[in-house]
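Below is a filled-in request sheet from our internal design queue. Each sheet records the structural input a requester submitted and the sequence that came back. We keep these sheets so that new team members can see what a complete request looks like end to end.

REQUESTER: design group, bay 2
PRIORITY: normal
MODE: inverse folding
CHAIN LENGTH: 592
BACKBONE (tokenized):
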């Protein structure tokens, strides 16, 4: 029976650091069926029916009527979106069925899990015709234990992916990015012992030592051992009745920073002889805080030289692998960045881990974007679920310094309550990181006022402003005064202008590279005058696809505010920002 059984494992049950475990990749070519009327799930009365596509049935006798067959259906690559793999799916919003056969060996005392890096937007999952459950949210991981249902030999895994937008979803129906649908991140099988280390967290203590916890999942309560070989550190901790083992290491690790992105190999093992479950991770240790209107990294004021980035591969389509991460973050480093705003949703883990290796601090964000249904409790639950899934996944990443709960959300009481709820949940889950949101400004004749009531609840004040593009002439920027009654650090989380790479003309002509360059020059002149400015992440690193940008010959469904085109062509404004960051870095280095 097609079950509408429960949601995927809750965030707290999420497997921490799947890359550091025994995994089998299910990436590659999956058989697919495009199903705009969801015929594989509902009968003609629109009721879930019992012999849907999820049965992956083989007709017993050739004369039997069956109107689908995965075995002879076309394939799509996983991970990846369908829009950029098949021209006929470029604008498609609806259901695509994915099916993968895989071999498994059931071993007594072992447990098997399915892990999805992310699926946009709703995933319903079946194994051998049995429902495992569903997940909503296009940018965070989820999974299911399949031990009772997996068979030794061949298994049929079927996923119904539906990327239709919904008014009560997160994000809602209107976004300035492409609604890439599909199994957009890796799918893996994770092989684990009966009792294993499911989750863990390590953090720097105020005294410079390390403390943390490990959470067991399963019946045993063996001691947990944590080792950091480079620090010659090892500790064994007894789990409590709930399987949580708390520990601290009296060591003094070198601090992680953009200048010195030091990472330590960490082994978390559940004892046993030999240990039957060892998770390997690489973790950096640093502190992040605010003091008045300053941001302090490892106790020192830092200016965030950033750039905003969408999870878009050069050429279009969802960025998926480590090579995309290295390309995008390599361009950020070339700009002179020490910071990236991964907009407007949690990016894939390669981006966050590559940022850690390359020495880039990260602003991570959930897609509470524009006109969310603030009054709807189900919408709030979805937002909170995605926040938890993001924090559970990335809480051990030194690169992540800011959790952002929203982008450009219209002010109002219901919105304020909704966002304050998310902020409280973020602080409960992770008291160490800074909380922000990209808010909108109020412009008056005497300049820009930072008066969003949400600011009281933020550590870092994020603001998007488009002086010279969406309002005012570029030269108004340097004459603009900023007014804030908050003694808090400001990050200008967006400014920018559109330009078509290679289109040249007078600097008064919109869409030329010269116009975009002029906006950047005038914006930089303004930035220098804002005393409480502690960071900026201009919009945006690279042109990206958007259904809201159809202007023929200029946009052609690309948002052209990139400093690089989707083919990696650097526009003139790229060099304006690069020069500004060169000066900022020199000033920081000389302590000015
Ligand atoms: C907004 C929004 C972005 C959007 C940008 C633009 O500030 O946050 O998602 O792409 O402006 O208009 O290009």
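RETURNED SEQUENCE:
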């Amino acid at each position: 029976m097609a079950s509408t059984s429960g949601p995927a494992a809750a965030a707290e049950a999420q497997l921490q650091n799947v890359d550091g475990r025994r995994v089998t990749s299910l990436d590659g070519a999956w058989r697919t069926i495009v199903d705009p009327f969801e015929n594989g799930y509902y009968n003609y009365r629109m009721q879930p029916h019992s012999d849907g596509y999820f049965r992956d049935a083989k007709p017993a006798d050739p004369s039997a009527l069956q109107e689908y067959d995965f075995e002879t259906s076309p394939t799509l690559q996983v991970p990846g979106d369908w829009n950029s793999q098949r021209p006929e799916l470029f604008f498609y919003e609806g259901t695509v069925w994915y099916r993968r056969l895989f071999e498994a060996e059931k071993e007594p005392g072992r447990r098997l899990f399915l892990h999805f890096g992310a699926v946009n937007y709703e995933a319903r999952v079946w194994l051998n015709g049995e429902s495992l459950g569903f997940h909503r949210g296009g940018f965070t991981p989820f999974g299911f234990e399949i031990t009772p249902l997996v068979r030794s030999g061949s298994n049929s895994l079927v996923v119904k992916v539906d990327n239709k937008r919904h008014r009560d979803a997160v994000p809602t129906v209107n976004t300035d990015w492409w609604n890439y649908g599909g199994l957009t991140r890796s799918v893996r099988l994770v092989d684990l012992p009966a009792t294993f280390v499911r989750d863990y967290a390590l953090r720097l203590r105020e005294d410079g030592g390390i403390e943390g916890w490990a959470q067991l999942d399963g019946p045993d309560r063996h001691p947990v051992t944590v080792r950091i070989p480079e620090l010659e550190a090892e500790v064994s901790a007894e789990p409590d009745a709930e399987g949580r083992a708390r520990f601290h290491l009296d060591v003094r690790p070198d601090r992680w920073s953009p200048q010195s992105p030091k990472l330590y190999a960490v082994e978390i093992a559940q004892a046993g002889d030999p240990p039957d479950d060892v998770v390997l991770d690489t973790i950096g240790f640093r502190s992040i805080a605010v003091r008045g209107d300053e941001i302090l990294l490892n106790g020192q004021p830092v200016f965030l030289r950033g750039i905003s980035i969408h999870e878009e591969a050069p050429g279009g389509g969802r960025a998926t692998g480590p090579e995309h991460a290295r390309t995008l973050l390599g361009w950020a480093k070339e700009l002179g960045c020490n910071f990236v705003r991964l907009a407007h949703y949690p990016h894939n883990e390669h981006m966050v881990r590559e940022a850690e290796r390359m020495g880039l601090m990260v602003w991570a964000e959930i897609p509470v974007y524009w006109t969310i249904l603030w009054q709807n409790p189900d919408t709030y639950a979805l937002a909170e679920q995605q926040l938890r899934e993001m924090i559970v996944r990335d809480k051990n990443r030194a690169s992540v310094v800011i959790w952002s709960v929203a982008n450009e959300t219209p002010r109002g009481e219901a919105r304020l309550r909704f966002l304050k709820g998310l902020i409280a949940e973020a602080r409960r889950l992770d008291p160490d990181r800074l909380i922000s949101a990209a808010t909108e400004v109020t412009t008056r004749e005497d300049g820009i006022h930072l008066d969003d009531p949400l600011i009281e609840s933020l550590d870092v004040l994020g603001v998007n402003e488009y002086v010279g593009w969406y309002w005012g002439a570029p030269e108004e920027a340097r004459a603009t005064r900023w007014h804030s009654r908050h003694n808090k650090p400001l990050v200008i989380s967006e400014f920018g202008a559109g330009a078509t790479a290679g289109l040249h003309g007078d600097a008064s002509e919109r869409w030329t590279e010269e116009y975009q360059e002029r906006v950047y020059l005038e914006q930089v002149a303004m930035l220098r005058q804002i005393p409480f400015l502690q960071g900026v992440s201009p919009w945006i690193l690279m042109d990206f696809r958007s259904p809201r940008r159809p202007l023929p010959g200029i946009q052609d469904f690309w948002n052209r505010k990139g400093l690089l085109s989707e083919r990696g062509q650097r526009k003139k404004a790229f060099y304006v920002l690069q020069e500004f960051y060169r000066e900022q870095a020199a000033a920081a280095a000389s302590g000015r």
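SHEET NOTES:
- The radius of gyration is 25 Å.
- The first strand starts at residue 23 and ends at 25.
FILED BY: M.R.
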